[in-house]
Structure formats: C-alpha cells, structure tokens
C-alpha cells in the first residue's frame, strides 16, 4: 500500500508575506532574466580521433547532447528530448573506440547515436532502466549498469541491444564504473560494499571466466575512478588512504602498488596521455582546481594552468599535442577549452557568457577563515560589495560531501551587486580540506556544522558595514537543512530570516522516504537509524521548531527523489502548529534543484523579495 502523502503544487503562508519593495531596483546592468538565461555547457568527451567534442548543454527545458567540430564549424545537436538534469548528477557522453558512436542516457535508458547523425536508438529495453555505458575495445560490445535486487550490477550487451550477459551477480554491494582493458579480456570497476559504506574497492574481473580479484580494498578507505594505461600495463585510481585523495598505480596482477601523487591535494579528475608517460590531472587547492601534468614514472608534476578557478574533466588528444578541459570561475561561467601541451596556448571552444553579463563588474571572492565554537578553523569565501547596503547573506552549500570554491555563482554576483555581503562557509564535513575535516560531522549532523554556520554570522557581525540585525541565511539541500537548524537551534537569534530550498528537518522520516542511494548516503555519515536512533533524532531540528522566531521561505520541487518533498511538507506543518511566520512554494515539475528557467526565475524573485523585505531598512 502506498502511504505517501499526496502533494500538489501550491503556495501558502502564515503571517503577512514578504512584499516586493517598490523603492528597490535591480542593480544597473542586472536582472533576474539575465541571471537565469545562461545555458550551462558541461560534461564533454573528446572523440578518439581528437577532431570533435561531444558535450551537454543545459537549456531552458532540456539537457541535450551536442557535437562541436574543432575545425571551427558550428556545433550540432544530436538529441532533442533529453530531460533537464543537474550537472552534478548527470553522466558524460561516451565515444566508441572507433569514433563511430556516441552513447548517453535518455529517460533512464542508454541510447546510441551514430557520429554522422540520426535519431538516438535505445539499446537497453531488456531492462527497466540502465546507465553508465562503456564500450568494449571492438566498439561492438557495450557494458551497462542496471539495478537488480537493490544492487547495481554490470551487464554486457552490444550496440544492437542484444540480450545481455551478467558480468556481476553478487549482492555484497554496488558495482560501478566498468572500464574494459585495451585487449578486451578484463574489466576493472569500483565496488561499493554494503558492510562498510566508507569503503570503495577496485576490482579486476576476467570477462571470459567471470573470476575476479580485489586489486585494492581497505577498511574505511574510498578507492574509485579506475582507468587502464593505454598499453594495459597499469591501472590507475584515486584513493583516500591518506588525508587526501591521491593517485595510485597498480599492475593488473596486483603487483607494483604505489602512490603516484603526494602533494596533499585532492585529485578531482584525470586522463592518461596516449603514450602512457603522463597523466593530465586536476587537483583541489583550497577551492581552486588546477590543471597539472604528472609523470607516471616519477610522480613529478608540473602546473599547466592554475589560479582562482575550477578546471575539470581533462581529455587528452590522440596525438598527445593538446588537452581539452572544462573551466569556470567566480567571474566566468563554465565553458570548454583546449590547451596545447608544448606551448601552453589556451583556446576557448565554447562561449556561453552573455554580452550583457560581460559588461557588468563581477566580484571575485576572498578566501577567508574564522573560528567556530570549539576553535576549529572554518574556511569560507567572502564576496565584498562595492557599495554595501548594510546587510549580508550566508550561503551554506549542499552535500555535506561538497565544497564551495571558485565556481560560477550567479546569485552571489547578483546579491553582491545589490550591496549585500555574501559569505559561503565550508563547514565541517566539507571536502577539500582533508579526511579529518571531511569526517568531522559523522554521527554529528546538525550539531557542530550548525555551530559553524552560526559562527559565520558572528564573523560577519565583526564588519562595521553590516548591521547586527541584517544577516540572513539560505541554502539548498544540506544547505537548506543548515538553514532550518540555524533558525531553530540558536538562542541568540543571529539570523533575521532564512531560506530553505529542498532542505530537511526530520532525518528519520526522510531516510525512510528517499530512494536507496540516498538512504545509503545518509548511513555513511550516521549509520542505520535502527542502530543509531539517538544520532538521527539529535540531528533532526523538527523537535526544536517551537524555538523558531524568524520568518522562513521554504521552496521544494515535487519530483525530488533525494530530499523527498514530504520533508518540507512536514516542516511547514510543524511551523503552522506553532504559529510561525513562513512562506511555502512547491513546483510540480522540478527534481532536486530547480532547473527549468521559468521556475528558476520565480525562485530567484521570491528569494530576492524575501531578503530585501526582511534585511534592508524600511
């Protein structure tokens, strides 16, 4: 029996709503229409021949796949009905080794499109859904991931969609990210074990016999993103055996394991050079992701590009002469680039930035640190307005397994242009600052990390330009949860108001209602609720709703499968019982995160009106 609460799109409030201020105008050169008009370019894959790039563009209503010839011709669109997907939760298109096919997902199934064009063809109708396509070296075989008996398994089919053969069947965990060997005899993949959710193993499987061995697996250590060297002599992977996620190499027979990088920086992404002597690697340096080259023999690294921005997803060309990559910064939206390895000359391949945006004076944030309640130093990014209006906004990121860095953030730029100080703290539990910091909120959700966000307000109160009663907080997902915690668990009432986008308030009920991957995600941090009931209850601010004294804006999409929309419904019901001031808006066609332009514009306008009403002098 389906006992879920039936929800419909609605707007409701308790108390007088925030009202758009006729005395306040958008900053010169800015508008909500402008900041919602950017079409994000992302998730690219360079063809084996190195002459064309496949990428995804998030438009107003679709996340379609495009091909961009590198000879200067116009990009062409090869999908027409791919639903909008959040960039952080989508897959990268995959080329066949012969360059004749591109594989990607549409509506939960793997589709193929020939390079010369044609309608996408679904090849996984033998199952209810499939993902993560990987071509075999002959460009005919195709490995896909399916879910069976609540575990992710690997199947081998072909480009015709023939009845598949199961490569993995055990139920000890999820089997992810299959990578065939250059000779096609083996695959290497990541195993997420259910008996140790902190652990990811690297497994080698012989395709003909089905025999497998664990190449790397240690208690409470994540090892992931395995890749074969071009000659098949080595397997590389990222592991967090030390404080940071470093690159390792191992032979397919299990010999020769060694740590390749040792710079104390998290490796984010990488790709092998075609001759196998180097790796193009992106590393995290306090929120900036540099692009470096690492020698596979010595581990010596050299910077190709660094500075306050995010380099990601390097792709090495077949002849080794150039690397394509994605890049964004606080003042530049995401685009595709290439760099010639010898001369370091950089060429921009796509141009998503609008002319109107380019004319505006954008603000680069400062990297700052402040101390929390227990003396722990909290890294953060501070946007200083040119003309302060006396108010400030704290923006806690989602996750918590994430980090705010030198990334494109149109809302930060918009509010800074309006005169707001804008602070994005990387509270305990954030990535990029070592394993100890990252795990500092395990079995501690809503406690220490909430204090980190409260002390962000105390940090801002030290600025003479900011009024003590004019600091607001707002975030999405775990950032929305942080907002709810800060408004319900702060006897000093440091925040004047709060915005929760698809945030949580009752971890127990949300755990029970969300999809499997999110249940397991929660259990990584808090264990199973049956064994750790007190931790779940202590981390659920719904028990403290009576303490809320400041107005809230709650926003949620009804298609959300990560934080179920019932989470906001339950919180709003509790606010009503205690006669708290709030506004509540849901969107019936939005998943986790707001993606459709018309909805995003409505969300941004509501947030702007809310903060302006409660934070600026009247």
CATH superfamily of one domain: Alpha/Beta hydrolase fold, catalytic domain
The low-confidence parts are none
Q: In order across it, which strands form the biggest sheet?
A: 1-37-36-35-34-32-33-31-30
What is the CATH architecture assignment of one domain?
Answer: 3-Layer(aba) Sandwich
CATH class of one domain: Alpha Beta
Which fold name fills CATH's third level, the topology of one domain?
Answer: Rossmann fold
- Shape descriptor: globular
Mean pLDDT, as a whole number?
A: 96
| Overall helicity | 10-25%
Largest sheet: 9 strands, mixed
Strand content: 25-35%
What's the count of strands? 37
From the alpha-carbon coordinates, what is the Rg to the nearest angstrom?
Answer: 24 Å
Oligomerization: single chain
The number of helical elements comes to 11
Give the structural class: alpha+beta
Please report the distance between the alpha carbons of the first and last residues: 52 Å
Keywords for this structure?
618 residues; alpha+beta; Rossmann fold; nine-stranded mixed beta sheet; 11 helices; 16% helix; globular
Write the layout of secondary structure elements.
Layout: E1 11-14, H1 32-35, E2 40-46, E3 52-58, E4 63-69, E5 76-77, E6 94-95, E7 101-106, E8 109-114, E9 121-122, E10 131-135, E11 141-148, E12 151-158, E13 165-166, E14 173-180, E15 186-193, E16 200-206, E17 212-216, E18 223-228, E19 235-239, E20 246-250, E21 258-259, E22 266-272, E23 278-285, E24 288-295, E25 301-305, E26 310-316, E27 322-329, E28 332-340, E29 346-348, H2 355-358, E30 366-371, E31 377-383, E32 392-394, H3 410-418, E33 421-425, H4 435-438, H5 448-460, E34 471-476, H6 478-488, E35 497-501, H7 507-513, H8 516-526, H9 533-538, E36 552-557, H10 566-577, E37 582-587, H11 597-615
Parallel strand pairs: 32-33, 32-34, 34-35, 35-36, 36-37
Antiparallel strand pairs: 1-37, 2-3, 3-4, 4-5, 6-7, 7-8, 8-9, 10-11, 11-12, 12-13, 14-15, 15-16, 16-17, 18-19, 19-20, 20-21, 22-23, 23-24, 24-25, 26-27, 27-28, 28-29, 30-31, 31-33
Helix pairs in contact: 5-6
């Amino acid at each position: 029996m389906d006992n879920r609460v039936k929800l419909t799109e609605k707007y409701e409030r308790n108390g007088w709503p925030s009202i758009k201020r006729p005395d306040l105008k958008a900053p010169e050169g800015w508008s909500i229409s402008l900041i919602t008009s950017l079409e994000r370019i992302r998730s690219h894959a360079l063809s084996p021949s190195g002459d064309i790039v496949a990428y995804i563009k998030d438009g107003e209503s679709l996340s379609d796949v495009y091909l961009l010839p590198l000879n200067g011709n116009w990009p062409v669109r090869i999908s027409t009905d791919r639903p909008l997907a959040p960039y952080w939760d989508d897959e990268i298109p995959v080329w066949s080794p012969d360059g004749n096919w591109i594989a990607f997902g549409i509506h939960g199934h793997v589709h193929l499109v020939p390079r010369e064009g044609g309608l996408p063809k679904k090849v996984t109708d033998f199952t209810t859904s499939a993902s993560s396509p990987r071509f075999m070296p002959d460009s005919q075989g195709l490995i896909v991931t399916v879910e069976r008996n609540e575990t992710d398994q690997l199947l081998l089919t072909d480009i015709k969609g023939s009845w598949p053969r199961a490569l993995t069947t055990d139920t000890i965990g999820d089997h992810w990210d299959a990578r065939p060997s250059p000779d096609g005899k083996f695959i290497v993949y990541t195993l997420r074990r259910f008996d140790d959710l902190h652990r990811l193993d690297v497994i080698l499987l012989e395709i003909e016999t089905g025999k497998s061995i664990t190449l790397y697996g240690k208690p409470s250590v994540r090892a992931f993103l395995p890749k074969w060297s071009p000659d098949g002599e080595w397997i590389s992977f990222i592991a967090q055996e030390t404080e940071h996620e470093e690159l390792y190499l191992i032979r397919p027979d299990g010999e020769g394991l060694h740590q390749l990088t040792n710079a104390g920086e998290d490796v984010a992404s990488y790709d092998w050079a075609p001759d196998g002597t180097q790796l193009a690697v992106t590393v995290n340096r306090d929120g900036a992701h540099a692009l470096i080259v690492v020698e596979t023999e010595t581990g010596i690294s050299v910077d190709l590009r660094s500075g306050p921005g995010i380099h990601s997803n390097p792709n090495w060309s077949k002849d080794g002469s150039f690397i394509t990559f994605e890049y964004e910064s606080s003042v530049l939206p995401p685009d595709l680039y290439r760099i010639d390895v010898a001369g370091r000359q950089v060429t921009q391949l796509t141009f998503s930035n609008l002319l109107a945006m380019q004319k505006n004076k954008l603000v680069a944030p400062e990297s700052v640190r402040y101390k929390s309640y227990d003396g722990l130093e909290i890294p953060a990014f501070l946007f200083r307005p040119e003309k302060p209006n006396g108010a400030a906004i704290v923006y806690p990121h989602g996750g918590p397994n994430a980090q705010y860095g030198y990334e494109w953030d149109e809302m930060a730029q918009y509010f800074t242009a309006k005169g707001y100080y804008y602070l994005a703290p990387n509270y305990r539990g954030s990535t990029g600052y070592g394993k100890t910091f990252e795990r500092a909120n395990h079995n501690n959700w809503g406690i220490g990390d909430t204090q980190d966000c409260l002390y962000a307000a105390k940090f801002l109160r030290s600025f003479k330009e900011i009024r003590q009663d004019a600091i607001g907080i707002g975030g999405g997902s775990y950032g929305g949860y942080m907002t709810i915690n800060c408004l319900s668990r702060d006897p000093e009432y440091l925040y004047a108001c709060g915005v929760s986008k698809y945030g949580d308030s009752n971890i127990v009920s949300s755990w029970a209602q969300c999809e499997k991957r999110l249940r397991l995600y929660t259990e990584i941090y808090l264990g199973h609720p049956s064994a750790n009931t007190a931790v779940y209850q202590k981390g659920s601010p719904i028990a403290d709703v009576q303490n809320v004294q400041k107005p809230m804006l709650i926003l949620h999409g009804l298609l959300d499968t990560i934080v179920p929309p019932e989470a906001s419904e339950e919180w709003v019901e509790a606010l009503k019982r205690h006669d708290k001031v709030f506004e509540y808006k849901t969107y019936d066609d939005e998943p986790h995160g707001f993606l459709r332009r018309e909805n995003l514009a409505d969300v941004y306008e509501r947030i702007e009106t809310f903060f302006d009403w409660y934070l600026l002098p009247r």
